[in-house]
Design goal:
The complex is a heterotetramer, with two copies of chain A and two copies of chain B. By secondary structure, chain A is α+β, with helices and mostly antiparallel strands. Chain A has three helices and ten strands; from the N terminus they run βαββββαβββαββ. Classes of the chains: A alpha+beta, B alpha+beta.
Chain lengths: 144, 79, 144, 79
């Protein structure tokens, strides 16, 4: 149930496939629910050219590790996975992946949803958007 | 009373507003997070500012211990 | 918003990546939620060696096509995708993929969940399991 | 009254129980799905059996038209 922070580009479906191949036994789970959040090219009425994602490295890692542990405690999971980008992000780039594997779909859906909702509500990340020649800090998180 | 050594960090719009990302300060015992803000900055504590002690969320009235790392940041917008 | 029926092996993450590359514009969606149902090697207290999925080809296709249309009518989706296996399935094989792309995660989660719940409740598929030397028709659908 | 031509299909456990996956029958006008079952099989209509006309879910009392395809099957277990 790891959480990873990536500065490099993130290919969520490739990461999912690799993680599954390396860490999950085929036939041990019946359900995998995953969520991928991607940077849109359009936010709050303006074209966004670039986004910079600041974080608080040690606290962000600690928060996400604990979040995965919480999800595993709250639901019957075989495993879960969180990956989040930081640094410079372009429109169309994936930002976040949350995934949960379980015997049954109820747990997989609930845990996957919990991971992204808690991450968005409390994980220490801050988005700054560049539109035209202006930069602005995002005040809510409407990107996904 | 011995002075404590506290690491203070600021993130995102707070970091830019204050022009400071990190500072090491000496502080009196039993100081709270809000009092650390007042000691380090010349501004009022901004509404909605979040804070942490040693990478865990904390409240402005929480007391800080010697060697702690205290952080201030705006509402988060990840995901 | 297509629905596909596969007799051949299904690699859901590869299918998702291919569909996204071919049909979705990067930056046009902020959220993708997807569900993958996989055959477990253990069901209702017994080791399952093989499963055969029977369907009613024309009705199943019609049902899934309409289901995708319904999801697109009910939520603000950029797109959705359903793929379901039929025929002989081994433990560990993926059986079903439901995916929904949207600007925001609420719609993506709700639509993805709706697709799998309606599919399980009403799509004309029937599972027959082989355990040891016995075959039995599955009476509910606890595999995912 | 002209006889109608109806395609009748059975799936899964019903198909195996009856030893029949498909049959073409002639039926009287205004016949219902349940009456088609009685005409084709020698068994009671099983509890929980689902039925369809032309690939849409239907009810046992629904009336069938000439050229329709009628299907009978047990509760579904896909996904």
């Amino acid at each position: 149930m790891p959480a990873y922070l990536y500065e490099q580009a993130l290919d969520p479906l490739k990461e999912l496939a690799q993680y599954q191949n390396q860490h999950l036994c085929p036939g041990s789970y019946g359900a995998c629910t995953n969520f991928i959040g991607t940077m849109r090219d359009f936010n709050a009425g303006t074209d966004v050219q670039l986004m910079t994602l600041e974080h608080y490295p040690e606290m962000t890692q600690k928060f996400l590790d604990r979040l995965c542990k919480e999800a595993t405690d709250k639901w019957e999971l075989v495993d879960c996975l969180v990956i989040h980008r930081f640094g410079d992000i372009k429109p169309g780039d994936p930002i976040v992946l949350t995934a949960a594997w379980s015997a049954h779909r109820e747990d997989a859906f609930s845990a996957c949803r919990y991971l992204i909702e808690e991450l968005k509500a409390r994980a220490p990340f801050w988005k700054k958007e560049t539109t035209g020649h202006k930069e602005r800090w995002v005040h809510d998180a409407p990107s996904s | 009373m011995l002075a404590m050594s506290i690491q203070v960090k600021f993130f995102a719009s707070l970091r830019e507003m204050l022009g400071m990302d990190s500072t090491q300060i000496e502080a009196r015992a039993n100081i709270t997070i809000r009092e650390i803000w007042d000691q380090v900055t010349s501004r009022d504590y901004p509404v909605n500012t979040l804070c942490a002690i040693n990478m865990d969320y904390a409240k402005p009235d929480d007391v800080v211990n010697d060697g702690d790392e205290v952080a201030f940041f705006p509402p988060v917008t990840g995901g």
